[in-house]
Backbone:
C-alpha cells in the first residue's frame, strides 16, 4: 500500500461564513480540487477521481470555516429537520451541493445515483439520468459528520464518500477531516493497489496491558458504562465519536478501538466508515466477533432503500490482538 501525501489546504480568499456565500464559491473550490486531484495521482479510476475531487473540494470550503467556529454564520447552524438530538442544519447541505456540482461535470460515470445522509432516498445526480434499474454506480455521502458537536466546540468533523456498484463492491471510499490534515482515500480496492495511511507495528505486550483508548458516543454511555471495557484497569473513554474522525484517530494511533454495540451506525454512515475500515485492513466485526457483510448491506440498501432505523452494530480496532480483547470486555460481567 502506498502512503498518502497530505498537501497543504488550499486557501480561499475572503472566507465566507454564510450559506449563500459558501455555495457561491463551490465552482472555484471544485476547480481547485480537480487540479489537486489530478496532480496528486492518487485516483486511478473515474469513481476514485469523483470521490477524491469531492473530498478536496469539501475541505477547501469547509476547513477554513470550521477552524474558527466563532466565525460561523448563525444561518449555517439553523436546524432544518431531523432528530431532536441530532438535527439537520443548513451547513449539512453544502456537501450535497458540492457533490451535485461535480456530478454535473462528470461524463465518465454514467447513470450515477446518490444517497446523502440528510436525504431520504436515492436520487439521480444529473438531469435526465438513466433509469434506476439500469444504474450500476451508487454514491453514498455524509456531507458533514458530527454536525451536532459544532455548537459545543468539539472539533471532530469529517466528510465521507463511498461509491458502490450494484453488486455491493466498493469502487472508491474516502474520509476527509474538516478540522486538521487527516485524510483516508482508496480506490482499486479489491486486491489491487490501494492508498492508505498506516503507522508502524505496535508492541503487542503493551497492547495487552495498557488501558484501551475507546471512542464511542456520549449518548451510548448509559448502556455501556457498566461493561468491563469501561472499568479503569481496562479502558478509558477518550473520544465522543464513532465514525470518520474516530477512524482517522485509530489509524493515527490515538484511539485503540471504536465501539457501538448498542444501537450502531445508520446504514448510510456505516457503508462509508465501515467500508473504509475494512479496506484499510483494520479488524472490524459485529460485537459478537462475526464478520460484517458490507457488500450484502450495500446490495440491500440499493435494492430496498432502508430507512434510518436500519443500523449496524460494530467494533473496529487497531490490531487483531486489541480486537479480541475488546470483544471479551464488551460482555456483561457475570451475574448481570
Residues:
Amino acid at each position: 500500500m502506498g502512503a498518502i501525501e497530505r498537501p497543504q489546504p488550499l486557501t480561499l480568499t475572503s472566507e465566507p461564513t454564510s450559506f449563500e456565500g459558501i455555495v457561491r464559491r463551490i465552482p472555484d473550490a471544485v476547480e481547485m480540487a480537480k487540479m489537486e486531484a489530478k496532480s496528486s495521482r492518487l485516483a486511478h479510476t473515474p469513481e476514485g477521481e469523483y470521490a477524491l475531487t469531492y473530498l478536496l473540494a469539501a475541505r477547501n470550503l469547509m476547513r477554513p470555516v470550521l477552524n474558527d467556529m466563532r466565525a460561523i454564520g448563525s444561518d449555517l447552524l439553523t436546524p432544518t429537520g431531523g432528530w431532536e438530538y441530532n438535527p439537520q442544519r443548513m451547513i449539512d447541505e453544502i456537501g450535497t451541493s458540492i457533490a451535485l456540482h461535480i456530478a454535473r461535470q462528470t461524463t465518465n460515470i454514467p447513470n450515477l445515483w446518490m444517497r446523502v445522509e440528510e436525504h431520504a432516498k436515492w436520487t439521480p445526480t444529473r438531469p435526465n439520468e438513466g433509469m434506476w434499474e439500469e444504474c450500476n454506480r451508487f454514491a453514498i455521502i455524509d456531507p458533514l459528520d458530527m454536525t451536532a458537536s459544532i455548537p459545543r466546540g468539539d472539533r471532530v468533523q469529517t466528510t465521507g464518500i463511498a461509491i458502490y456498484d450494484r453488486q455491493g463492491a466498493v469502487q472508491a471510499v474516502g474520509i476527509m477531516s474538516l478540522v486538521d490534515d487527516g485524510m483516508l482515500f482508496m480506490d482499486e480496492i479489491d486486491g489491487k493497489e490501494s492508498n492508505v495511511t498506516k503507522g508502524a507495528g505496535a508492541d503487542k505486550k503493551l497492547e495487552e496491558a495498557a488501558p484501551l483508548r475507546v471512542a464511542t458516543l456520549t449518548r451510548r454511555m448509559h448502556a455501556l458504562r457498566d461493561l468491563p471495557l469501561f472499568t479503569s484497569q481496562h479502558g478509558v473513554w477518550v473520544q465522543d465519536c464513532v465514525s470518520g474522525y474516530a477512524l482517522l484517530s485509530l489509524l493515527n494511533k490515538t484511539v485503540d478501538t471504536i465501539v457501538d454495540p448498542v444501537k450502531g451506525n445508520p446504514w448510510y454512515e456505516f457503508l462509508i466508515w465501515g467500508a473504509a475500515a475494512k479496506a484499510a485492513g483494520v479488524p472490524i466485526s459485529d460485537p459478537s466477533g462475526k464478520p460484517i457483510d458490507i457488500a450484502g448491506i450495500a446490495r440491500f440498501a440499493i435494492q430496498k432503500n432502508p430507512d434510518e432505523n436500519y443500523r449496524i452494530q460494530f467494533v473496529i480496532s487497531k490490531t487483531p490482538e486489541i480486537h479480541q480483547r475488546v470483544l471479551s470486555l464488551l460482555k456483561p460481567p457475570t451475574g448481570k
